[in-house]
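Readers outside the structure-tokenisation community will struggle with the description of the input data as it stands. What matters is that the chain and its backbone geometry are given together, residue for residue. For illustration, here is how one protein appears when written out as sequence plus structure tokens:

…
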Amino acid sequence: MEQIAWSLYPLIAAPVKAILPRDDLQIRAVSIYTCPGRPNRSLGAVLDLENGDVRAMEKATFAAGCFWGIEAAFRKVKGVVSATVGYTGGHTKNPTYKEVCTDRTGHAEAVLVEYDPSQISYEDLLNVFWEIHDPTQLNRQGPDFGSQYRSAVFFHSPEQQAAALASKERLETRGSYKRPVVTEITLASEFWRAEEYHQQYFQKCGVH
């Protein structure tokens, strides 16, 4: 018996037929769709065939050093549907890893996180972000240095901007670090997916 996956454009059912395994009860929408009037905020959808529910997904983008470990960390978080490594915040189109590593394109190694806001909040994702890197290191993380390794939150909506600024202020107020927090909080720009060998790199290498 066939199961049907549906895409939303935006949040209006438009059938996209797919033959799916019988035991695959949760399917992520193939694409991310832009919300009308909010060009930097996009949604995907999950169709739960068991319950017949359609849940809107949201996205968040973070940079915190080498994207391999950042992606792996977010993939372990309940409510995260996917994590994709890539490049953003630069001034050239479709950059390669080699080009980004020259520190001349302006891009940061970043992770695009697609998540279910009914299971995890953006504020909780921010907490994960702060915990998995040192936000006081300017243009570096550990042995990796260059602006491509900078700490940054790329917000997709005014709500995300406000949440990120408030979260950063709380971190500074607590006095968790002896040095200032240098994390950039800036509007998300085009995200360029990194080469396939970078995707889920730790998993491919057997690192858990």
